[in-house]
């Protein structure tokens, strides 16, 4: 029997045994999925895919409505599942009623069918942590709300059309090989934007104030950030670390409800002038920049603080040590600056669990503060000639 006749014969057998009828196009698409994809060792996802039964009732990961497939969840979503191997069939782009498609982490390779992005009702597409390659199209379903294709091997430019979809709230393209600059403006009502670990360059565009989560770390982004960040009043997570960003850090940024603020490994300059205290207990990492002036006391409200490897001068505000002593600050790294004074009162006890490092400044570190990382080096105090250069801040 010719192999090409098998799917049709299976479908007619299904019709004879089933009271519910799945659209022929959708049925044949399930056949092509089963032919082009397989379980990795230890996975049994496809064990329920018996084509003599009703796929809408018995197939794991398949949901239907009105005889059409509306949701596909490919692979066992439980933690530790081995996932699937193979490729995504082009026929996926024929599931015109599909609203949700997800693929668990595995070893699915090849390109994503471009027609899949054009499905008129597609709202949710998650294909992360596989080996997918190729480029993204220039057109997407206007219904799309969530797109997650992170941790693959996709390349090329990030299409500008993605940033102008009327309902897109979550965009996750991290850990790929995207290049080029981002569009000048973004009109999508994004809440979650994650583009970290790519090869993106150029400035950060003007972003919508709807954002709660923004990660652009580990790219080659450059330029100033004042106009890009100053209106993001709803941010609770910001990571711009490991880029080439410069200029000053907007003072208003510290007043946003950000629980994790990571700006390390850039070229930010100037003094810090927070307009209000940072969020209590936050993670604050401004290390490895070129920041100058004194350290503002408003930063002491954070719980984990990295200010090391900058050009801060003057005395460390007493609020920092007070909060270390009461356990509010768990880590305080101030090494490799030009600080001149840190006072620890005789009645102040630094908890053993606290990590406080102040070596390689223009002062002798107080007795008892020895919790410095190995990478901080062995030098306890800066040479006098270095300190005289920065004596006036």
Structure description:
This protein is of the alpha/beta class. It is built from 6 helices and 27 strands. The protein has helices spanning 6-17, 24-36, 55-58, 226-229, 318-325, 384-389, and strands at 37-39, 62-65, 68-74, 84-87, 100-103, 107-111, 124-126, 131-134, 146-148, 153-157, 170-172, 177-180, 192-194, 199-202, 213-215, 220-223, 237-239, 244-247, 260-262, 267-271, 283-285, 290-293, 304-306, 311-315, 331-333, 338-341, 355-357. The strands form 2 sheets. A 14-stranded mixed β-sheet has the order 2-3-5-7-9-11-13-15-17-19-21-23-25-27. A hairpin with a 2-residue loop joins strand 2 (62-65) and strand 3. It is elongated. The protein starts with 5 loop residues before the first helix and ends with a helix.
Please supply descriptive tags for the structure shown above.
single chain; 393 residues; 14-stranded mixed beta sheet; 13-stranded mixed beta sheet; 26% strand
